[in-house]
Design goal:
By secondary structure, the chain is of the alpha/beta class. It contains 28 helices and 24 strands. It is globular. The termini are far apart. Pfam families: DEAD (PF00270), Helicase_C (PF00271).
Length: 767
């Protein structure tokens, strides 16, 4: 099928035309022909026979914009169009997405395909009208596009209808599967897939789609826990688009004094921020781009700055904010603007546009700072360069402090620049963060036990074991821990469940309240929020209740500047009017430390001599300074240096191992703090530090649960508050502390202690 067939229903020719194309239903072939496609992508060619057969689970791993969705649904729709079915007999395929916006985006594409073969398509999530859901419920058929939370709501609220709704189900497609793995939502999703198959009464083919899977064996185990070896894996063989990549460095002079405007509620922007915004404006105005600013606060600051540059330059407004606290209407307005191919525009976003939401053709992607993950960086890069012959374009902006006599050694090591280089190196080598194994996810286990009780009107201990543990949804949980969780849920001070005389588990007083709460269907925490409403009645979005916003305060929100007129505690609303000045509110929940392999690559960058070609002049100077500081501190061979009254310890490990080391030192009376790539210890505790490291190196690994109890607040997940200290410590340890590596790390640090360690403890060594 190298050329568009003159007969869209013709058979394969002898000149190497696509055989997979000919396997599709004739109306699906007609749809392809109407799209003007000249060929199928390689991943589509290979997925069609597998999914038409309808017997094997499948993972489709291919880059962004490689046609993964069509690789799944061209054969699925063909199969559904061929199979005889009774109208209203049940949904025949489910598409599950992590984002409502992605569902809305896919719905239009799916609807045009399914109209051709007269298969209904339904959206079902929190923004869909109840009347639409009611029509789908009364006459279930075709394809259902939904989220895990909406599936949970269906099963909990319509448990007695589950068999009727899913009796005809043949396929379950999980889009952006990597976004679920190693997360609370992922465990919920695995449980939901299992519960739906039980309701349907037969196995259902599972299809996982992703552009950034790191470990295919682990991914197969996620998709089908009881039979990972039976999962077919298709990885795209297509070559990558040409790549244009640049890291731009900016130096921030040390502020002499606090800006006078900061007391007036105005944003104190750094010189580097202003220079970055100016370059973004000069480079991207008149083009179509995505700018990933990192935090919601940064999104607001850069959007306001870029809009201000449009205003002062007398040009049309082209820059729009996009993050999770903004209203759906505001986000969709920005998305619609970029879908207009004849108009330039740029969206400044957090991770909200990292996944596959279609915003049309993108000329370039920009990123401020190194970002959180390598896989996320790859997702972002894939948003540009989608047209034939076009390069993918990415610019990464990094900021470092000017070096002077007051600079801290860690800042002089230029960690942002080096982390950016390390992550780009790993991205170019096609590395992705592997999923973390061994996490207990007890908060989600509690939620799923309550969900099963609500779905079925009650649950036996054995039924819960079979559906949640034997199914390998929670493979790390043994019988003793499972019973321990149930006993905790039944405890008088918890009262999530109670047990009937025949042994049936029922909701307790607190369990009833939790199940009936509107936020029950989501396993992630949803903060209590206020709506932000303009004086003209427009909903801009939401702010957390604990965000310190006061009447008359000037804020930046949705990329514009506002004055808070009134805060209505009863209606949970913040009324604002347009103003000048302002700072973004505190959104919270931002920032993640790098993974082990990122830190290891940073060390390789420091130790190496290679000069990446993608650095601009300032970024290159920062790399040179970083390596000079690294050598000046003697870090090629030493693990410890002193700066003023603190010791800098360099273990060169990621966040979980570093936290384990910090807690293990604390257990030996050494006060240590994580500072990115280094751990700081008071210089007066130098002797105590060496003694603790020697002890840790010689003894077996410390107990992770004992270390966890040293953490002031271990609660991280939604239902952690019900666990009690013992279960909470065990859960926290499994997810955040890599205690097994402590002896190895300690031994390595001891082996790299400088010969003059005693002198270092006693003398303030200048940088």
């Amino acid at each position: 099928m190298n050329d568009a067939p003159s007969d869209p229903f013709g058979q394969a020719s002898d000149d190497g035309a696509s055989t997979s194309f000919d396997m599709l239903h004739e109306k699906v072939r007609r749809w392809i022909w109407h799209q003007g496609w000249t060929e199928l992508r390689d991943i589509q060619e290979r997925s069609i026979p597998v999914l038409l057969e309808g017997q094997r689970d499948l993972i489709i791993a291919a880059g962004t914009a490689s046609g993964k969705t069509e690789a799944a649904f061209l054969p699925i729709v063909s199969r559904l169009a061929t199979d005889e079915r009774k109208p209203g007999a049940g949904f025949e395929a489910i598409y599950i997405s992590p984002l409502r916006a992605l569902i809305n985006d896919q719905f239009g594409r799916m609807e045009t395909l399914c109209e051709e073969v007269e298969i209904p398509v339904w959206k079902w999530h929190g923004d869909v009208a109840s009347s639409v859901k009611e029509r789908a419920r009364k006459r279930p058929q075709g394809i259902l596009l939904t989220t895990p939370e909406s599936l949970e709501a269906i099963l909990v609220r319509r448990g007695n209808e589950a068999k009727r709704l899913f009796a005809a189900l043949s396929y379950m497609v999980i889009d952006e599967m990597h976004a679920f793995m190693d997360a609370e939502r992922g465990r919920q999703l695995q449980s939901l897939l299992n519960r739906i198959e039980i309701a349907a009464g037969h196995p259902v083919v599972r299809v996982g789609l992703s552009a950034t899977l790191a470990d295919m064996r682990t991914s197969a185990a996620f998709l089908r826990p009881l039979n990972p070896d039976g999962v077919e894996i298709l990885e795209s063989q297509m070559g990558s688009q040409p790549l244009k990549l640049q890291v731009r460095g900016y130096i921030q002079p040390r502020l002499k004094q606090r800006d006078a405007n900061s007391d007036k509620g105005e944003a104190t922007e750094s010189i580097a921020d202003i220079e970055i915004a100016t370059h973004l404006f000069d480079t991207l105005r008149g083009h179509r781009s995505l700018i990933f600013a990192g935090s919601r606060r940064n999104v607001e600051l850069y959007t306001a700055r870029l809009r201000g540059l449009c205003e002062t330059s007398g040009v049309p407004e082209e820059f729009f904010a996009h993050h999770g606290s903004l209203s759906r209407e505001h986000r969709e307005e920005a998305e619609r603007r970029l879908k207009e191919d004849d108009r330039p525009g740029s969206i400044i976003a957090t991770t909200t546009l990292e996944l596959g939401i279609d915003v049309g053709h993108i000329d370039a992607v920009s990123q401020i700072g190194p970002g959180h993950t390598v896989s996320g960086m790859r997702q972002r890069l894939g948003r540009s360069g989608r047209r034939a012959g076009q390069s993918s374009v990415m610019r990464v902006y990094t900021t470092e402090m000017a070096i002077d006599e007051r600079i801290h050694p860690i800042d002089a090591m230029r960690p942002r620049t080096v982390q950016t280089i390390a992550m780009l190196n790993l991205m170019l080598r096609r590395w992705n963060e592997p999923p973390q194994i061994g996490c207990l996810h007890l908060s989600t286990l509690i939620q799923q036990i309550l969900a099963l009780i609500a779905q079925h009107g009650g649950l036996t201990v054995k039924q819960g074991w079979n559906r949640l543990i034997e199914s390998r949804v929670f493979p790390e949980i043994d019988q003793a821990l499972y019973i321990g969780v149930l006993r905790r849920m039944k405890h008088p001070e918890v009262q999530l469940i109670e047990q009937a005389p025949d042994g049936t588990l029922l909701p307790g007083e607190e369990g009833e309240r939790v199940i009936n709460d509107r936020g029950f269907y989501a396993v992630f925490m949803t903060p209590d929020e206020f709506k932000v409403i303009t004086d003209r009645g427009r909903n801009l979005g939401t702010l957390p209740v604990d965000s310190p916003v006061m009447p008359e305060q000037l804020i930046i929100f949705a990329g514009r500047r506002w004055r808070v007129m009134e805060i209505d505690d009863q209606r949970r609303e913040i009324l604002v009017t347009r103003a000048y000045g302002g700072v973004p509110p505190n959104f919270g929940g931002e920032g993640l430390p790098p993974a082990d392999e990122v830190v290891a690559e940073m060390r390789r960058v420091y130790e190496g001599i290679a000069i990446p070609r993608f650095l601009d002049k300032v970024a290159l100077e920062c790399l040179t300074e970083a390596r000079e500081t690294f050598d000046h501190l003697g870090l090629r061979h030493a693990s410890l240096r002193r700066h003023e009254d603190e010791l800098l310890l360099f273990p060169w490990v990621g966040n979980r191992a570093q936290l384990a080391l910090v807690l293990a030192l604390a257990s030996h009376g050494v006060k240590a703090n994580s500072e990115g790539i280094a751990v700081t210890v008071p210089a007066k505790d130098g002797g105590k530090l060496v003694a603790a490291l020697k002890t840790l190196a010689e003894r077996p690994a410390p107990d992770a649960e004992v270390l966890a109890r040293l953490v002031p607040d271990m609660q991280r997940a939604k239902y952690d508050a019900y666990l009690g200290e013992e279960l909470l410590a065990r859960c926290y340890a499994s997810e955040h502390i890599d205690a097994a590596r402590v002896p190895i790390i300690a031994a390595d640090l001891i082996s790299r202690l400088p010969a003059e360690a005693t002198t270092i403890f006693e003398t303030k060594v200048p940088l």
